[in-house]
UniProtKB/TrEMBL annotation:
Protein keywords: ATP-binding, Coiled coil, DNA damage, DNA repair, Nucleotide-binding
GO molecular function, one term: ATP binding
PANTHER family, sorted: DNA REPAIR PROTEIN RECN (PTHR11059:SF0)
Sections of the chain in a coiled coil: 158-185, 328-355
One example of a Gene Ontology biological process annotation: DNA recombination
Source organism (scientific name): Flavobacterium microcysteis
CDD domains from the UniProt entry: ABC_RecN
GO CC terms, sorted: bacterial nucleoid
Pfam families: SMC_N
Keyword Coiled coil listed: yes
Family: Belongs to the RecN family.
The gene coding this protein: recN
Record carries keyword DNA repair: yes
Protein name: DNA repair protein RecN
Record-annotated RecF/RecN/SMC N-terminal domain positions: 1-505
Length: 550
């Protein structure tokens, strides 16, 4: 509930501090006295946008501060989600600086307007005559029915399932798109893959083949030089091996005379052994080397196949070709994999739809049971409010589509008079009728859900007498379970309040300002008498005012 309101430098208000009580509060005042200014100030606290025209003194900042008791509102999750300190007595402050910049705070923590608006929806419902258009909106109509049907948990579960269902549908669309794209390239990718697989590529194979090709292609030149090398090494009188043996024999004779000579002898011995080994290997190579035209042709063909593939795929190595082969393999396999994923996704969608259907049916059945109760209550209240022949036709029918709050299509029709046809509320009901219907709806909802503080802003326009008396009774009844404010011009309603505030203008120096005052019992009698008879208050008006108050 709203416990206090402080306003500084806003419109015609210089400074105002006022405390409010729970139950039913009345606000009255002449037209133009400043009632709309109060609502404007509350609107800023609830997150409406501000501009410099709001400042009374353009050189000073405007500060509006409202204190709410939210102990019973179960708002701890909201505060936690928005990283705010939860206080049972929560203070919302809005500042508008002379520069035009606006700031907002909840319990001294800065917040943005969206967070403020979301919080405001839990705190105050400002209901004016033009806001009765809400009644014509299907979402609001469903909210009324679902509140009476106690569908809150079911709809919450349904929305959670619906979100999952839509995500699954979206994922399926993506998979189908991928499959369509992959299928277009499937044949070409398969051809490229088969071509690479047929080549039976191996890492390092190209270098090995090129080496073999060079040997086979130059076999005569290689053999000639191998033979010549062997001949130079083994020639009997002048060969390298013969000369090395001579050197070795000479050094052996003097090796014992000095460590240096011995070292030279050991080194030449090592060279001789190494040369013998080289010559032996040269002989083996020369003997094993032979011309093989067929093998040369096979190697050449394999190399040409590799070169052609490298040119085709614009790469330079076999390893790069193998990477392309692996990628193509994945693409070819992915089509089958995508098909499996699609089948799995379709199965999940079917299961999800089945769960949605079950809970949507439960929601619909509870709505069907609640509608006659709602209709009966609406008619009973509206008969008291001067609409004795009012009728409602509320029907829900199963839709093929999954809607935001179930699978029901809603027909919420209204007829005000006997013999008249049913029609849509916004086309059939007058402004005064819409106000009374909304009052009836709010009074019914107050019995089924914890409504925030509600402010009725002159919704009594166009009614008087006994109807006004009944409207006041309904508001007073609502105030037993919630805080209710009524801004009114009707004495019958004003007399029902637990407390009564008057908005009035005063002139201070050369400045006009609006003020709000809590009326005493005697002042309240005078105010209601003035509402009955005007500025010239008669004794009968005084007596009538006292009678209304009693």
């Amino acid at each position: 509930m709203l416990t206090s309101l402080s306003i500084k430098n806003f419109a015609l208000i210089e400074k105002l501090d006022i405390d409010f009580s729970e139950n039913f509060s009345i606000i009255t005042g002449e037209t133009g006295a400043g009632k709309s200014i109060l609502l404007g100030a509350l609107g800023l606290v609830l997150g409406k946008r501000a501009d410099l025209s709001s400042l009374k003194n353009k050189e000073e900042k405007c500060v509006i501060e409202a204190q709410f008791n939210i102990a019973r509102y179960k708002l701890e999750p909201f505060f936690e989600a928005n990283d705010l300190d939860f206080e049972k007595e929560t203070i919302i402050r809005r500042e508008i600086l002379p520069s035009g910049k606006s700031r907002a705070f909840v319990n001294d923590s800065p917040v943005n307007l969206q967070e403020l608006q979301e919080l405001g929806e839990f705190l105050i419902d400002i209901h004016s005559q033009h806001q009765t258009q809400e009644l014509s909106e299907e979402t609001f109509q469903f909210d009324i029915i679902d509140s009476m049907a106690a569908n809150l948990e079911e709809i919450s579960e349904y929305k959670s399932l619906l979100k999952k269902y839509r995500n699954l549908k979206s994922n399926l669309t993506v998979l189908q798109s991928k499959l369509q794209e992959a299928s277009k390239e499937q044949d070409y990718n398969s051809f490229l893959l088969e071509e690479l697989l047929a080549a039976k590529l191996k890492t390092g194979e190209q270098e090995e083949l090129e080496s073999v090709f060079e040997q086979l292609n130059n076999v005569e030149l290689i053999k000639e030089n191998l033979d010549r090398a062997v001949s130079i090494a083994e020639e009997e009188q002048f060969g390298v091996q013969h000369n090395l043996k001579e050197i070795k024999a000479s050094l052996q004779k003097i090796a014992s005379f000095s460590p240096d000579y011995n070292s030279l002898f050991e080194r030449i011995t090592s060279v001789s052994i190494e040369l013998d080994d080289v010559v032996s290997e040269l002989n083996q190579k020369a003997e094993s080397l032979m011309s093989d035209p067929e093998q040369l042709e096979l190697v050449n063909q394999k190399l040409q196949a590799i070169y052609n593939l490298q040119q085709k795929h614009q790469v330079k190595t076999v390893d790069e070709l193998l990477l392309i082969q692996n990628d193509l393999d994945k693409k070819v396999i992915s089509v089958d994999s995508l098909q499996e994923e699609i089948e799995t996704a379709e199965k999940e969608i079917t299961e999800s739809a089945s769960k949605l259907d079950v809970i949507a049916k439960a929601i619909s059945e509870k709505r069907q049971k609640a509608i006659p109760v709602l209709t009966e209550k609406l008619i009973a209240i509206l008969e008291l409010l001067g609409m004795p022949n009012v009728r409602f036709k509320i029907e829900v029918s199963l839709s093929e589509n999954y809607l935001a709050n179930g699978k029901d299509d809603l027909q919420f029709l209204f007829a005000a008079n006997k013999g008249s046809d049913f029609g849509l509320l916004k086309k059939t009901a007058s402004g005064g009728e819409m106000s009374r219907i909304m009052l009836a709806v709010k009074s019914i909802l107050a019995q089924y859900q914890k409504l925030p503080t509600i402010i009725f802003d002159e919704i009594d326009t166009g009614v008087s007498g006994e109807i006004a008396h009944k409207m006041g009774e309904i508001m007073k009844e609502m105030s037993k379970t919630m805080q209710v404010f009524a801004i009114t011009h009707l004495p019958q309603i004003a007399a029902k309040g637990n407390t009564h505030f008057k908005v009035f203008k005063s002139v201070v120096g050369d400045q006009t300002q609006s003020e709000l005052k809590l009326l005493s019992a005697d002042e309240r009698v005078i105010e209601i008498a003035q509402m009955l008879s005007g500025k010239d208050i008669s004794d009968s008006a005084i007596n009538h005012a006292k009678a209304l108050l009693n």
